[in-house]
Amino acid sequence: MNSNFGRADRLSARLVEIGVSEQMTSENFKPAGKTNVFAQPVVLCLLLVAVTLVVYWPVMRYDSVNYDDPDYFSSNTHVQAGLTSDNVVWAFCTGYASNWHPLTWLSLMLDRELSGPGPAGPHFTNLLFHLANTVLLFLLLRSLTRATWRSAFVAALFALHPLHVESVAWISERKDVLSTFFGLLALVFYTRYAQKRSRVEGQASSPTTESLALDPRRSTLDYYLTLLFFALGLMSKPMLVTLPLAMLLLDWWPLGRVSSVGCRVPGAPAPASQLLTFSRLILEKIPFFVLSAISCVVTFIAQQKGGAVVKLARIPMTGRIENAFVSYARYLDKTLWPASLANPYPHPGHWEFPLMIYSVVLVAGLSAIAVLFARRFPFFFTGWFWFVGTLVPVIGLVQVGGAAMADRYSYLPLVGLFVILAWGGGELWLQRCWPKPFIVLVAGLLLVAGAWQTRIQVGYWQNTETLFQHALAVTQNNIVACNKLGSFYSRQGRMTEAMDYYARALQINPDDADVLYDLGNAFAQRGDWDNAISSYRHALQVTPDQADILNNLGFALAAKKQFADAIACFEAALKLNPDYADAHNNFATVLFIEHRFDEAVQHYREALRITPGNPQIYSNLGDALVKQGQTTEAVWCYQEALWLKPGDPQIKAKLQALGAPISN
What is the pLDDT of residue 435? Predict the structure, then answer.
């Protein structure tokens, strides 16, 4: 009898090794008969892709928004110039937009190359990455747990939850979908690595002919691929810094590398006879933690230099801790009831005491439950601390910007909550607490409701006006929404409406530098230089070291013929940002007016080095070269300008004045 048991055990191990064994649960153990075609992974992936495409397809017709999109795509001269060698170097060296994410820049440059300067290309690419992330998540969970339907349910929630609309519909959040793509790829290869290691170590004490084929070196490639994709993810968005901790959670469940009692899915490879120690698992993750530490340092430096890090004097640490707990509670609330979603959510500074206490009790209580029932419900432990841990970098302890929270921050963290829902529902069925048809009905209704609400939420991203009008409707004291609407109406020439929204913004905070800067731009657009100068100076009193404000103040001063003060502003702007093309061009124009032609030519050349495709700068450089008597090069500049801007009458007139041929 003992001999038969041993043979059966070896047979089971062999089946696991060659991938035949499946999880022997009521979910996937069925008697012989017709195969359910909808349970096939390929079919499920196609269904997930099709439904998600239908829900999100309207974004293909949408415009960009004037909130970060100009910095990331529409007005970014490097991105709009496409994938050139200089721009590739810039992507890896810049901290522009207060972040270091070179792969995000490169992907947007590639969009520009493939689909032109419009927003349709970036929108489509964001959607493609969301579809890829959905499929990867399904395949990852199925590989980890062998639970097809639960994995598909989690992937469907991920694809169709309204909180994820911001990450997909916002061009600037390319970094979110791209980093998650690489992060999920890293976890796919980590799963392969961990499962191979478990098989090898589990058979090390009693090797057989079959187990000798499981060479530990075969898992080395998977380990290095995990490290590579993790690094690529960090180079897309540094929020992935907590992924090594997520790997440790997967080691607990469902990989079962920490304990073999209640923390490993049935049918998964058994760990070694001697349980892996926690310290050994930590040692295994050291290269990942090193990359995370480097990414944290680089990101903090980039955000601090970019002025994105909010000082403690503005939001003290007590207020940040309060907001962290309240944000966790709000994310939970919006996950279960995704209403009143907005971009952005204003930071109140301090939350009401009852809400803060409720949030602390909720987060602490759920954390305690996860720990106390870790062995009985290991999926709850992994899911909950996945949610809590992956949100840590953006929970506000290091405050970046003025938002209290953001829908986009939940893109990857919500996977933990979805796992709890899927496996919790499965437990209720297995324990016969609820009948299977009821659970299936509830799951279906959740997905339909999510898809419906997501389609509605997608509609708010049509353009700047629809996005921020909705934000004002569902939030209070939203200074960013007021300011962006003011800027939007100003650019459309609807100055009365623009000024109304700027006034509303300044009522919320009279010293907001962004509002004062945009208000100055609105005055400048109307030619009201005195009020423009006043607004710019007020903004500089709040934030003294801002190159954009200094450049525009210099332009306004030059319009008032206060050239000495204008030159001082341009010099200060270029000291802060030596690669500021507009400041070089404006500075050169003032120098030209002052008859300082040699210096003007120098700054025009710098502006062209930074933005080589700008016809106006070519024309300006030609004017300065004519003054120097360098007519041959001036003609070449005018011809380049005319090639970039065909039919321009002013450029044609300049060529005719020099007796040069006009090519078009």
Answer: 80
Residue with tokens 């639960």: 150
Angstrom distance (rounded) from CA 547 to CA 581: 11
The rounded distance, in Å, linking the Cα atoms of 502 and 157 is 39
Q: Do the beta carbons of residue 93 and residue 142 sit within 8 Å?
A: no
The closest of 194, 177, 185 to 139, measured between CA atoms, is 185
Q: Which helix (H) or strand (E) holds 404?
A: strand 403-405
Instruction: Dump the DSSP string for 601-618.
Output: HHHHHHHHHH-TT-HHHH
Cβ contacts of residue 347 below 8 Å, gap of 6+? Answer: 315, 323, 396, 399, 402, 403, 404
User: Predicted confidence band at 239 (pLDDT cuts at 50, 70, 90)?
Assistant: very high
Judge contact between 56 and 168, C-beta under 8 A. Answer: yes
**Average pLDDT for the chain:** 87
Tell me the DSSP string of 436-477: HHHHHHHHHHHHHHHHHHHHHHHHTTSSHHHHHHHHHHH-SS
User: What is the total residue count of the chain?
Assistant: 664
Q: Beta strand pairing status for 403-405 and 345-346?
A: antiparallel
Nearest to 401 by CA among 529, 263, 303, 326: 303
Q: Is the peptide bond before 102 cis (omega within 30 degrees of 0)?
A: no
CA end-to-end span of the chain: 94
- Rg, Å, the chain Cα set: 29
User: Domains in the chain, please, with CATH?
Assistant: 2-26+37-459 (no CATH), 470-480+506-657 (1.25.40.10)
| Cα–Cα separations (whole angstroms), residue 12 to 23, 345, 599 | 12, 54, 80
Whole-number Å distance between alpha carbons of 587 and 608? 13
Cα 632 to Cα 629: distance, rounded to the nearest angstrom: 9
Q: Taking 60 as the threshold, does the pLDDT of residue 14 lie above it? A: no
The span from the CA of 295 to the CA of 289, in Å, is 10
**Sign of the torsion angle spanned by Cα atoms 464, 470, 471, 477:** positive
Instruction: Tell me the pLDDT tens digit for each residue of 562-619.
Output: 999 999 999 999 999 898 999 999 999 999 999 999 999 999 999 998 888 889 999 9
The percent of the chain in helix, strand and coil, each rounded to the nearest 5, is 70, 0, 25
Task: Specify the amino acid at residue 532.
Answer: A
pLDDT at 429: 76
Instruction: Report the C-alpha gap between 402 and 398 in whole angstroms.
Output: 11
Query: Is the pLDDT assigned to residue 312 strictly greater than 60?
Result: no
Closest CA to 221 of 248, 197, 254: 197
CA angle 144, 150, 152 (to 5 degrees): 90
Whether the CB-CB separation of 302 and 98 falls below 8 Å is answered with: yes
The H or E element spanning position 345 is strand 345-346
Residue 81 CB neighbours (<10 A): 19
Please state the pTM of the whole predicted model: 0.88
Q: Amino acid letter at 630?
A: Q
E strands, 202-353, in order: 345-346
Do residues 401 and 275 make contact, with C-beta atoms less than 8 angstroms apart?
Answer: no
Give the tokens for residue 570: 């341009």
DSSP class of 663: -
Per-residue CA distances from 22 to 213, 227, 543 (Å): 21, 29, 61
Band the pLDDT of 396: cuts 50, 70, 90. Answer: confident
CA 431 to chain centre: 40
